Amino acid sequence: MKKISILSVFAILTFATSCVEELTKQPDFISENQVFEDPNLTNSYVANLYQRIGFQRGVNVSMATKNAVGGENIGFAPWQEPNGTSTRQFTEVTGPGALDEWDYNVVRDMNYLLENITESETLDEQFVEEKISEVKFLRAFEYFEMVKRFGGVPLVLEVQSADQPEEELYVSRNSEEEVYDFIYSETQEILANFDDSKTGAGGKVDKYTVLMLQSRAMLYAASIAKYGDGSSNGVVGIPSGRAAEFFQKSYDASKQIIDSGMFRLINDGEDKVANYASIFVNDGNDETIFAEVFEPFLKGHDWDHLAIPAGFNATWNSNFPVLYEMVELFDFTDGRSGMIDRSLFTNSTEWDINDFFGNRDPRFRAAVFYQGTPFQGKKVYFHSATIYDDNGTMKESTSEGQTFTTIDGESFPGAAPRRNRVNTGLLLRKRVDDNALTPQYGSSGQDFIVYRYAETLLNYAEAAMELAKASEAMDAINQIRDRVSMPLFESITLEDIRHERQVELCFEEHRYFDLVRWRLAEEKLSLRTQGIILKYNLETDKYVITLKNAENQIRVFEPNRYYLPFGINRLADNSNLVQNPGY
After folding, report:
1. Which of 244, 356, 447, 533 lies 20 to 30 A from 12 at CA?
2. Phi, psi of 534 (to 5 degrees)
3. SS3 state of residue 370
4. Are β-strands 542-549 and 288-292 bridged in parallel, bridged antiparallel, or unpaired?
5. How far apart (Å, rounded) are the C-alpha atoms in residues 536 and 371?
6. Strand partners of residue 427
7. Nearest of 285, 407, 423 to residue 354 by alpha carbon
8. Pairing mode, if any, of strands 448-452 and 288-292?
9. Helices marked H in 176-234
10. Any residues with CB less than 8 A from the CB of 18 and at least 6 apart, and which?
């Protein structure tokens, strides 16, 4: 079974670590220098590094935090991490909060392997090279996670010890440019060490995983060089003259993956909604380039338990309300814009829900629970009231227990379950397993996709457009749109490509960081977020739709937030750590 390899070696390390902690039991002690004399222990050491990277943020409500700060969803309750992170203040006192990424402990353990595994007297040379390549990728990935948040960070590439001089221990920040150059050179160096086989969908780094880090990271660097304002305190910002170079590197990496022919857009059925949804529940498919592997209960998460709507068998349900701003991004299948004039949402206007939701881009219907979504043999409801004729008098029912019969002969509740309707009238569906009939804590095993082929095409298209290769960009975007039977472009703009990216990669932790690198976050993430209120008219079989505030405050993205702040404790720990501008 494809999931066992990474998980089982981690279990071995857990056992080994427990032995190390029992220092009084000398026979059970495994020293660090012994690890790299045994292939099983070495695999366990590397598996532990994979585990600690944390490609997916947590296993509970925190899984939706990065989407929330990107203006895609909120959490059910104000106290949940997605909400607190989206509306908090970012200052030197408050620090980066849940968006933080600063794990120099795991970097230290990566450096330890890289410095010591070559001293092994027993490990096979090819095995050693393989482990070095995997760990160098993981280290480059970790530095990318830091640089895209903070700009320049200290590049610590050797194991530090407590007896080193202070000037060596308290490392200054490298520039943002230097960190991106390191990521490229490090990944370029290890590419030749991988053969052409695919292992990424099973959780093990391969050639294509490395190329995808180049594809994504170089696109970020290029965007910052082109769209950043050029201001710098020596550690943030990239010279604009390097934008084309970085776009070319992203383009080249993406093209290598495309030309390999090893991946495809999943397009296996006539039902475009079900086909797109299957990408995120059918693990190991041909679109997945690299994923963090999960297994129910053994290494499970709570996605289904948290995301499934009320009215089904998830006891802690409806936790990821979707913002109406995301609905607007999804155009209709006939080419109409998804941006409907908001002034039309009044109590005197009624809407055909089958058109309003049902004729939107299939990716919307696969990613969002909306009024009337078919699910597990029933329908999902979000309406707050039912309007009906009671012997010539129009009345409203707000009772969940009262039922009516629709024009089509269906039984219909007076109101939806409270947890469905109390927030935005929409819920996150993407990655939900329709077969999870009785979800529990830790029972979800859907893998977390880090890289997939659709992103390859999107990265390629964006880089191509920036390099004046519009026809190549349009071809890549049209492949993605054709998969879901959306109208194809006959000409294309950079805005079209950015819009397509937000739709295709919705709720996959991209939008926040994309808006940041495009320097559009001030415009797109400073807003009063909206939800919808639905009232069903039993007599006309249509809905009154009005808007409501989804959060109790206006979101504001200040210009300094393009780089997160270091908290006062981190600054106190290292006197050579320079704060980011504006804090």
Report:
1. 447
2. -115, 130
3. coil
4. unpaired
5. 10
6. 321, 369
7. 407
8. antiparallel
9. 176-191, 207-227
10. none
CA distance 311 to 379: 9
Q: Which two tokens stand for residue 9?
A: 């070696």
- Percentages helix, strand, coil for the chain (3-state, rounded to 5) are 45, 10, 45
Determine the number of helices (DSSP H) and then strands (DSSP E) in the chain. Answer: 23, 13
The predicted model gives 77-91 an average pLDDT of: 95
Contact 393, 329 (CB under 8 A): no
What is the β-pairing status of strands 403-405 and 411-413? antiparallel
Q: Measured between alpha carbons, how far is 533 from 25 in angstroms, rounded to an integer? A: 64
CA within 13 Å, CB half, 372: 16
pLDDT in tens, 233-267: 679 999 999 999 999 999 999 999 999 999 999 99
Q: Encode burial over 188-208: b for 16+ CB neighbours within 10 A, e otherwise.
A: eebeebbeeebbbbbbbbbbb
* Dihedral angle of Cα 483, 484, 486, 490, to the nearest 10 degrees: -10
The confidence band for 483, taking pLDDT boundaries of 50, 70 and 90, is very high
Q: Is 0.90 surpassed by the pTM of this model?
A: yes
pLDDT reported for residue 138: 98
> What does the DSSP assignment read for 457-475?
HHHHHHHHHHTT-HHHHHH
* 8 Å CB contact between 542 and 387: no
**Contact between residue 64 and residue 428 where contact means Cβ atoms under 8 Å apart:** yes
pLDDT digits (tens, 9 = 90+) for 412-460: 999 999 999 999 999 999 999 999 999 999 999 999 999 999 999 999 9
Q: What is the pairing mode between strands 378-379 and 374-375?
A: antiparallel
Handedness of CA 118, 122, 125, 127 (dihedral sign): negative
Give the closest residue to 238 by CA, choosing from 195, 282, 332, 174.
Answer: 174
Q: For residues 2 and 131, which has the higher predicted lDDT (pLDDT)?
A: 131
What is the C-alpha to C-alpha distance for residues 323 and 427, in angstroms, rounded to an integer?
9
- Other beta carbons within 10 angstroms of residue 367's beta carbon come to 26
Distance, in Å, from the CA atom of 120 to the CA atom of 459, rounded to the nearest integer, reads 40
State pLDDT tens for residues 49-69.
999 998 999 999 999 999 999
Spatial distance between the Cα atoms of 452 and 276, rounded to a whole number of angstroms: 13
